[in-house]
Structure to design on (480 residues):
């Protein structure tokens, strides 16, 4: 970084809660329904319509806050955040301002082997706005449409402290938050559907100084990869601007993934621009100790706890357990395969090395795997029993992945089964030795590298089905 500048970032993460209805009415929050089909007088902002708070949304928000080590406030309050957008029919958003649901938490991250604690300022509830859809720009006359299905969808906003110092730390922080939300089952965190959105606030300062520089807020970040690129670009832009004698403006900027740059959208608003005031149609939200304890006891196993359990229950290496618990779905897949096969360590190896490689190459996630956990367990048992070799197992897995067939089916179709009968292998070994007297003489005169050639010939003669360990043992015996 130029002249020792240090980036100081904090993130605002919006997470859509997995409730059956919106936060203040009974309309469905389901994604993908026809435009404006999930609306009512409340989420349309019609005069006289009164909001009623969704208890399930509060419960899910409390789970998220406690998992982020936040303190739940016994009393919180909703406020009206006043601003105008075409997709905000009321002219204000019901959110929480000076009395949020929870505050003062933290998340631990690990970047390049170094652990760091990122503070959480607050977690508060709010409703989402609608969505503006644009078409025709720039090639023809632009038309805009408003879809209010998202209006009133329940969100929590997670605001971090300005503790993030690099795009890599921001990436790890967001990945960690997403993983926790998915483990709790309070959100599917699908960024393509808008269930997880992030705005990053970026500022730079000279090393050795304590005062933060003027911040910009970067929006339109619909993937973690774009987040890293946008932050790196914005940090570099601010440093160059300051060192050339310019001044950073407090503004909202958008990330353009095609041009790989940020550009100004509007001057950043301050809190007083929103004219916050208490929501008169909602009573203060009171959380009793009994309710808080009920929520805590109902929480599902979190990533760190599951990791420790996998290490203890399945005798996994710490690194393998960390990889497997990086996704709730991957951890569940592993446990299903481990229990079905009875070979947890071998199952972990096949998942982490072979299956994840195939998924990455085909741009799929573990939930889209053509190979079920039960089918992988079948393959693992065949390898563990010596019925097939590891190399044969890789070929069979690739076929299973492309066809969806079980390991036994592929093995039968291709005539693949490991030959472990010593007499059958010994017969092939003798035939190979008898057919290659020159190579035998070279080996016996000390050219030991020829041994690998003999192994290859035996494996070729058995179509790769001979047990490699037995092949080597019998070759040494016959050649010696």
């Amino acid at each position: 970084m130029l002249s020792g500048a240090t980036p100081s970032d904090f993130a605002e993460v919006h997470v859509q809660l997995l409730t059956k209805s919106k936060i203040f009415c009974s309309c469905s929050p389901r994604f993908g329904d026809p435009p404006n089909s999930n609306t009512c007088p409340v989420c349309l902002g019609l005069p006289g319509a009164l909001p009623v708070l969704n208890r399930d949304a509060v419960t899910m928000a409390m789970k998220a806050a406690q998992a982020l080590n936040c303190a739940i406030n016994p009393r919180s309050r909703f406020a009206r955040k006043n601003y105008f957008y075409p997709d905000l029919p009321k002219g204000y958003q019901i959110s929480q301002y000076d009395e949020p649901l929870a505050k003062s938490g933290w998340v631990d991250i690990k970047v390049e082997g170094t652990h760091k604690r990122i503070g959480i300022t607050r977690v508060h509830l709010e409703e989402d706005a609608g969505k503006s859809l644009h078409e025709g720009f720039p090639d023809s006359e632009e038309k805009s449409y408003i879809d209010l299905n998202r209006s009133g969808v329940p969100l929590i906003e997670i605001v971090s402290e300005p503790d993030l110092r690099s795009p890599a730390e921001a990436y790890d922080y967001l990945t960690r938050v997403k993983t926790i939300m998915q483990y709790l089952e309070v959100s599917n965190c699908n960024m393509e559907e808008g269930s997880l959105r992030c705005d990053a606030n970026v500022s730079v300062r000279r090393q050795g100084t304590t005062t933060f520089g003027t911040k910009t807020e970067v929006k339109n970040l619909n993937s973690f990869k774009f987040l890293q690129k946008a932050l790196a670009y914005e940090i570099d832009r601010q440093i160059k601007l300051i060192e050339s004698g310019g001044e950073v403006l407090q503004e909202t900027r958008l990330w353009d993934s095609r041009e790989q740059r940020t550009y100004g959208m509007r001057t950043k608003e301050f809190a007083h621009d929103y004219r916050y005031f208490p929501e008169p149609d909602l009573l203060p939200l009171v959380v009793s100790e009994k309710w808080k304890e009920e929520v805590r006891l109902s929480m599902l196993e979190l990533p760190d706890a599951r990791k420790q359990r996998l290490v203890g229950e399945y005798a996994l290496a710490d690194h393998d357990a960390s990889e497997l618990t990086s996704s709730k779905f991957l951890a569940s897949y592993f446990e299903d395969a481990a229990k079905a096969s009875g070979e947890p360590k071998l199952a972990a190896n096949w998942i982490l090395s072979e299956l994840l490689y195939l998924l990455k190459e085909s741009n799929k996630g573990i939930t889209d795997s053509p190979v079920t956990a039960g089918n992988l367990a079948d393959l693992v048992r065949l390898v563990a029993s010596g019925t097939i070799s590891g190399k044969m197992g890789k070929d069979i897995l690739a076929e299973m992945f492309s066809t969806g067939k079980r390991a036994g089916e592929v093995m039968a179709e291709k005539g693949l089964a490991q030959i472990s009968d010593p007499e059958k292998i010994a017969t092939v070994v003798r035939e190979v030795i008898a057919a290659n007297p020159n190579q035998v003489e070279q080996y016996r005169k000390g050219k030991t590298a020829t041994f690998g050639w003999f192994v290859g010939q035996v494996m070729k003669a058995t179509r790769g089905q001979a047990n490699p360990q037995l092949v080597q043992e019998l070759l040494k015996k016959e050649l010696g």
About this structure: The longest strand covers residues 114-127.
